[in-house]
Amino acid sequence: MAIDRIFKDEASEEKGERARMASFVGAMAIADLVKTTLGPKGMDKILQSTGRGREVTVTNDGATILKSLHIDNPAAKVLVDLSKVQDDEVGDGTTSVVVLAGELLREAEKLVAVKIHPMTIISGFRMAAECARNALLEKVVDNKADSEKFRSDLLNIAMTTLSSKILSQDKEHFAKLAVDAVMRLKGSTNLESIQIIKKPGGSLMDSFLDEGFILDKKIGIGQPKRIENAKILVANTAMDTDKVKIYGARVRVDSMARVAQIETAEKEKMREKVQKIIGHGINCFVNRQLIYNFPEELFADAGILAIEHADFDGIERLALVTGGEIASTFDNPESVKLGQCDLIEEIMIGEDKLIHFSGVAMGQACTIVLRGASHHVLDEAERSLHDALCVLSQTVNDSRVLLGGGWPEMVMSKEVDALAKKTPGKKSLAIEAFSRALLAIPTIIADNAGLDSAELISQLRAEHQKEGCTAGIDVISGSVGDMAERGICEAFKVKQAVLLSSTEATEMILRVDEIITCAPRRREDRM
User: What pairing do the DSSP bridges indicate for beta strands 479-482 and 471-474?
Assistant: First the structure.
């Protein structure tokens, strides 16, 4: 009996059929989980953490849902990673990518059941994916040259992205915000310079875009409330030295007068430091650490606005936006780059006071202030807006655009079907399966809207046999509608990423024929 004991006691292995079953089932379960969030009529999920405070997240973003799950099944983990990567790469399509991979696996499972080798299926899927991508490439529209049209494309893409999220009711408003913010970036995909501030209160419609920079801080006491032509020094330095900074240090003195001397010395040191800082010729000093009242007083006397404890994100962004650098030593003022802006003032949003920097050097920066009923609404609004911003910033670079609403899937499916009919051998079965999997996305969009998907998909298929057809599923009217008229667009880059990454993930899961689980480490008794 000693032969089959290669592994340690508690390690388990599953071979062949069982292993494949386990991966298929796990992956499909994950796909079914996020399936219902797809499309304009998709529902949201509430995720409750088991940690302290039992935080609740309400979301419909595939990546957010899957990130929060603790999963044991290895194949399901592949899908979770897939949606994470999609989120980092293009920002949107996180649900579609998982759903498509799940459907591909569902089709592959049927093929494996009729004794087709996984490698054959994989090579078929490979051909099909290539064919589908080319089908899309033939149909893309590129309006980069015509700025008016391009802007309306961007607006449509933003509205399409937002329509499946919580912001769908005010999508015109938010699409405009997102497009304005991204247009300011002038083609960089660095979303750092778009700052999103969430302030509970008001309604989602009260959200607005501000072209300056807003720091979530109050202005200190006795300091100027308004500065024009500000020169800003951004620093990360300790401004609280009126005690000895060495932990556990003892200072022995022979009289109280000496204590006073030490204190005066420290005060002088501080005063010197402040003098150095003022010597930069600035009128606004932003520090990351706290500023004690003594230096603060000195700054106020010099008429300098001192802001303390600006969180690190805020500081880095502020330095980026005003064109300054973060300084920590002040000995040679000529080498420090100061930030500049036209006006610093205090504004009120809801109950809170914030500091507003307007007329900043880097014209790309802007701040989006989100208002909403509660923190959950705001968090979800931020996620949705972030998706829209990502997609738009990618589209500004790669300006190819497709129609949405299940149209691209139908186009791909039609081409892939045609390829299957031309391909001899068992591969053709896999290619056909791929086209069925593509049809699943419009099917699910229709199902989520409570429509008769079988009826609608067959109508769509018939429509798509015509040349230059622009039909897709119009969930609002519950029928097949013209996507070009409805202005439902998607970015080509998102679709391409969905197609390629889900095919690759499927391929990876299909290649599995054995799952080995390690023995858990035992905890020795610490007695």
Answer: antiparallel
Q: How far apart are CA 174 and CA 155, in angstroms?
A: 9
Place of tokens 């593509």: 438
The strand pairing partners of 233, in sequence order, are 285
Both tokens assigned to 380: 């979800």
Q: Which ranges of 114-235 does DSSP label H, i.e. alpha helix?
A: 118-139, 147-163, 171-185
Query: Could you please report the per-residue DSSP string of 188-212?
Result: ---GGGEEEEEEEBS-GGG-EEESS
Give me the amino acid identity at 190.
N
Closest CA to 287 of 251, 314, 323: 314
**φ and ψ at residue 211, rounded to 5 degrees:** -85, 5
Per-residue pLDDT of the chain (527 residues; tens, 9 = 90+): 444 667 777 777 777 778 888 888 888 888 888 888 888 888 888 888 777 777 888 888 888 888 888 888 888 888 888 888 888 888 888 888 999 999 999 999 999 989 899 999 999 999 999 999 999 999 888 877 788 888 888 888 888 888 878 777 888 888 888 888 888 777 666 777 788 888 888 888 888 888 777 877 777 677 777 888 888 888 887 776 655 556 666 777 788 888 788 778 888 888 888 888 888 888 888 887 777 777 888 888 888 888 777 776 677 777 777 777 887 777 777 777 888 888 888 888 777 788 888 877 666 678 888 888 888 888 888 888 888 888 888 888 888 888 888 898 999 999 999 999 999 999 999 999 999 999 988 899 889 888 898 999 999 889 888 888 888 888 888 888 888 888 888 888 889 999 999 999 999 988 888 888 777 776 666 55
Q: Residue length, the chain?
A: 527
Strand partners, 232: 284, 339
Distance CA 380, CA 385 (A): 9
**Interstrand relation of 194-200 and 213-215 (parallel, antiparallel or unpaired):** unpaired
Q: How would you list the strands of the sheet with 489-491, edge to edge? A: 141-142, 400-403, 489-491
Cα atoms in the 13 Å half-sphere on the side-chain side of 44: 19
Quote the pTM value: 0.81
Active-site residue set? 61, 94-95, 387
Do residues 57 and 376 lie in contact, with contact meaning Cβ atoms separated by under 8 Å? yes
Phi, psi of 417 (to 5 degrees): -60, -45
Domains and CATH numbers, the chain: 12-141+403-516 (1.10.560.10), 146-203+370-398 (3.30.260.10), 213-362 (3.50.7.10)
**How many angstroms separate the CA atoms of 296 and 304, rounded?**
9
Q: What stretch of H or E contains 368?
A: strand 366-372
First to last CA, the chain: 36
> Which helix or strand (DSSP H or E) is residue 286 part of?
strand 284-287
Task: Tell which phi-psi region holds residue 205, choosing left (phi > 0), alpha (psi between -120 and 50) or beta.
Answer: alpha
Which structure tokens are listed for 501? Answer: 């990454």
> Phi first, then psi: what are they for 360, rounded to 5°?
-85, 160
Q: Are 196 and 203 in contact (CB under 8 A)?
A: no
